[in-house]
Amino acid sequence: MLIFLLRRLGAGILLLFVITTITYTLLYFSSDGIAQNILGEFATPEQIALKQAELGLDQPLATRYLDWLGGAVTGDLGRSWFNSEPVVSALLNRLPVSLTIVIGALLISAVLAALLGVAAAIKRGWIDRAVQLLSLAGDALPSFVVAIVLVTSLAIQAKIFPATGFVPFADNPALWIMSIALPITALVFQLVAQAAQQFRSAIIDVRRRDFVRTLRSRGLSEREVVFKHVLRSAAPAALTILSLQFVGLLGGSVIIEQIFALPGVGPLAVLSTTQGDIPVVMGVVVYTVIMVILVNLVVDLVNGWLNPKVRVS
Amino acid sequence: MSEAVVQNPQTPVVVARSGVLKRLAKNPLAILAFLLLLGTIAASFLAPVLATHDPNYADLQMVLAGPSAEHILGTDSLGRDVFSRLLFASQVTLAAAALAAVVAIAIGVPAGITAGYFGGVFDGSANWVTNMLMSLPGIIVLLAVRAATGPSVWISMLVFGVLLAPSFYRLTRTAVKSVRNELYVDAARVSGLSDVRIMSRHIFSVVRAPIIIQTANVAGVAIAIQSGLEFLGLGDPLVPTWGVMLSDAFRNVYLTPLLMLWPALAIAITTVCLAILGNALRDSLEDGQKAPRARKRAASAVPVASPAEVSTDTAVNAVSDHLLDVVDLRIGYPQEGGATTTVVDGVSLHVDRGEVLGIVGESGSGKSQTAFAVLGLLPETAEILGGSVTIGTTRTVTPGSRAVSQARIAALRGKGIAYIPQEPMSNLDPAFTIGHQLVRPMVKVLGISKAAAKARALELLATVGIVNPQRTFEAYPHEISGGMAQRVLIAGAVSCEPDLLIADEPTTALDVTVQAEVLDLLRDLQKRLGMGMIIVTHNFGVVSDICDRVVVMKDGRLVEGGDVRTILRAPQHEYTRQLLDSTLEGKTPMSMLTTGTKA
Prior knowledge:
The complex is a heterodimer of chains A (313) and B (599). Chain A has 313 residues and is mainly α. In chain A, 80% of the residues lie in helices and 0% in strands. Chain A has 13 helices and no strands. Chain A is globular. The N and C termini of chain A lie close together (8 Å). Chain B has 599 residues and is an alpha/beta fold. Chain B has helices at 20-25, 28-45, 47-50, 82-118, 120-134, 138-149, 153-180, 183-190, 195-234, 242-251, 258-300, 367-375, 406-412, 434-446, 450-463, 469-474, 482-494, 512-529, 540-546, 564-569, 574-584, 590-598, and strands at residues 324-334, 340-351, 356-360, 383-391, 394-397, 417-420, 500-504, 532-537, 549-554, 557-563. In chain B, the strands form two sheets. Chain B has a six-stranded mixed sheet with strand order 6-7-8-3-9-10, sandwiched between helices. In chain B, strands 2-1-4-5 form a four-stranded antiparallel sheet. In chain B, a hairpin with a 2-residue loop joins β4 (383-391) and β5 (394-397). The chains are: A mainly alpha (313), B alpha/beta (599). Chains A and B meet through α1, α6, α7, α9 and α10 of A and α6, α9, α11, β6 and α14 of B.
């Protein structure tokens, strides 16, 4: 198990390296006008040249990249070109908001998908059809369209929830929940769809297995058989789907945070890309890739715990 | 399971494989989705004709106007006609989504075919690239691309197409891999066709349908991400698309919320319709594949017939002082179209305390179905057509009821009635330790503490002949052998000292040497606990070894029944004789017969 974890971690670090290299190379070609952008329209060529030297823009790609990589390895992602804020602290300031939304959506989706899957698989009939239709819509509709509908109807028209802003949990737990309810709902709506479908078909499949019949014959209640035994065997496949979709969730959260004006990583990503603030863009890329690697690792661990056979192989 | 039972009779029997489109046409939702998509595409093509205004003509006198005769859907924040913009926007949006899909197919499909067909180094490296691409968040990459190249819907969709290529790659690779090993591809290779010819002729026909389905999904995703990017204000403001319009409308959400409706609706309808169409297409393809199997099942089904004409000593009367009393039991599976396949037809039998009854028959004779009916473990699709089952003083099947009373049988399980399955490995939950699976029922049924149950479980494991009970207790099912697993299952079955034990082919899946040991163990336990026992088997050797009485089943009916010695010595029915001939050949239990004759 430890070897397995180390291998996954090694693959993750390699992935991180490859992706940052590609992104950095890509961004290198867009850095021409940056100094001008930072200094404004009326900067003299001398000022621009000075700024370029200050930012290291006069250096060749390899030097700049190795410089960045050297810092990144020691946990220093540089400073923003526009407001000189260290990238790491900018990310850390915004991380709590983004993580609340993303992890919240992931956990709620996992639980909801399991419940919907059980209901659809066992009750069949109209509940099954409703779940299927709902997941179809949830899967197809972009989460930001759902968010727009939610914000327009429940926040702007009905005024039940705040349309924008974030209240830290420490300040006011009730308002905290209100401020993250709609963003999380929008993300869950999309995330839960495929996982619920996967749960449903896996539960239908597992319920036909021999060991379930034997467990029933031993006098265990149907509830215990379904929620303890069937669900446990059905979960790994659905959780894997969920971890694959997490990549999309991260992307979706960028737009969602922008819609609800949440001070998360999303607005930072949007602002830095429009400005061409390369250190910040790189920081955002590093953050997303690390999140993806971590979630995949956690799902692998959970699956190993759920299914002891996986643990061995 | 030994019976070739109909597992899923809901499968519609559809004959032609070419009927995919026909089946699709029967799905009203799919037709609606198709028509809506067709309408959207037509509207985008006809945009120059249908549009009432220049989509980019700004009339600053008419900013954010409501719907009017001149502007059917009103105007936006720059006084541009929303209706005209919507039409031209669908042109750009759909074309850009198509670009992403085309790029994804152009990269993914050839790569998938090559990787699947040739394997090797290309396969390995392509898989690596695929995994990397799939762990990239699309929006973040597109944001980076936009930072590098500026706002262009075409460039971002081109890049997104590359990001989407893995979905086609995986699909094609899997399909090609499975087809590659098919006989007809080998035959084609032997007959001298070149790899390219083989791929284009045989393989393309296999991957065509999945690719079409995937294209529908991918187009929806492309529209979603493209609109999302533009919604963030990162699109080209000069090119009207749904996302750009939505972004503009959202900025004025407090002034004119209605403005958001049109682009949002366009995005929602298109993406959902694409998904519905893709889904419907997949369903109708799957139905087509199921059809031949459904027909085969129908052919092997037993026809509905009159109740058994053979009267045996077990079928004479229903005296209630038996431990188990089954009277005229009939079980069937309702089929599509109202017909019912009967698998158990008028079976009557009884078991007394301390007595072992054998139910003998070949696969499909209904013996396991009878056992499952007694246990209340029939599949959900099964139906009781008649008769009654009484266990002790509890009627679990009352005459006229369509199913086993789960409430009444649940109260009996463990203590009243227990079950030993046929296949040891598949009957233990792989996710829980052996100990947990033994302890939990005892806690539940006997109401003893966990610690007491554990002590008892260890004792039981020793009783069934497991050398190291503690280690087996802590093991997971995949860590023990099949013979041990069967012993564990026996321990589980007798753990609450049941009055009646039903063993369904308890030795079939085991090695010959282990078979004898397990039978000895069963006989031993049965004597010690004074249980009534039913052994379901196709093997007369097992019957002669352990049973007191035996009933023979064929095609869902009892053909013969009585004392084991009598039946073995002088089988009355032709079928029993055949069974005896086939199972006793060269087997040791013959000694039973000979001693019987001598006595």
